[in-house]
């Protein structure tokens, strides 16, 4: 069944309108005839009832409804019966066609109804001549204009709503692509940077200290496997494979020890300091905090040269703070660092969650990344 926005059944409403017009026609046609000095006949009330009852299916079959109502109304007027409630049924039928059918089809149907209605002006039991032309035409023109306006407005509203749905779907798709690109950048970028550094170490030690080179190669194997596992998790989430996603949970601050070990294997010692009581965080906050640390340490690996890094995590009742500092060469030796995609991606991740982000030269040299992420206060 067709329902309007309030959930009310339109078919029931149309049936109620039809019954109301039947009652109105039966009660009002006689008095209308007395006021006009015109009587009624044997066919008066059957025609009134037919015209009114046809409106019960006006929205389902608007053209057929208009044809029936026009035929009944034309016969009624040709027989010389008084102007009365039957014209209300005709008005509603014309309005419905104009509102629920394309303008061209509705115009043709309205023209046919106008021809039928005008017949009694020139022929029939009580022809009125040209003096009745305009008043009778108004019974078609007025409801048609109202219906066309309402119908056009409704169609434009539906088209606008559909366009907004398409734009929203496109926006969500773009946001999803950006999210996946950011995840892949973080995972692959960090993994490749660590592997590159470990490979350089292995090549340097291969002839002089092969046993240490073996350790570096082992670190490469471990790092590549971890990066592939993390990338697999990212792509699994994109495919909405919930069962597989549960088997490989989203990275978070709990994985900091593994991240620290990977960087140590690549030649960058990392200290991790935690202040406050660690607690489970919302998935988005936990992942963002981890990505900030991961990308910051990747930048240290790529740009800082021989350096150490310190990661500080502070848990507060309403927020978690991430700070990453290093003892590297600092921004003077790396002019392109602050404008990289990684920092832009970190800033976007943090601000989307309502947090704050800052990155720049450290007060004692090196580079510093600072992010604050809001979380709900634990009671």
Automatic annotation (TrEMBL):
It comes from the Bacteria. Residues 284-377 form the Histidine kinase/HSP90-like ATPase domain. The chain crosses the membrane at residues 12-31, 43-61, 81-98, 105-124, 136-156. GO terms for cellular component: membrane. The keyword Membrane applies. InterPro entries: DUF7134, HATPase_C_sf, HATPase_dom, Sensor_HK_TwoCompSys, Sig_transdc_His_kin_sub3_dim/P. Pfam families: DUF7134 (PF23539), HATPase_c (PF02518), HisKA_3 (PF07730). Its EC number is 2.7.13.3. GO terms for molecular function: ATP binding; phosphorelay sensor kinase activity; protein dimerization activity. Keywords: ATP-binding, Kinase, Membrane, Nucleotide-binding, Phosphoprotein, Transferase, Transmembrane, Transmembrane helix, Two-component regulatory system. SUPFAM superfamilies: ATPase domain of HSP90 chaperone/DNA topoisomerase II/histidine kinase. The keyword Ribonucleoprotein does not apply. It catalyses: ATP + protein L-histidine = ADP + protein N-phospho-L-histidine. PANTHER family: NITRATE/NITRITE SENSOR PROTEIN NARX-RELATED (PTHR24421), NITRATE_NITRITE SENSOR PROTEIN NARQ (PTHR24421:SF10). This is histidine kinase. The lineage of its organism: Bacteria, Bacillati, Actinomycetota, Actinomycetes, Micromonosporales.
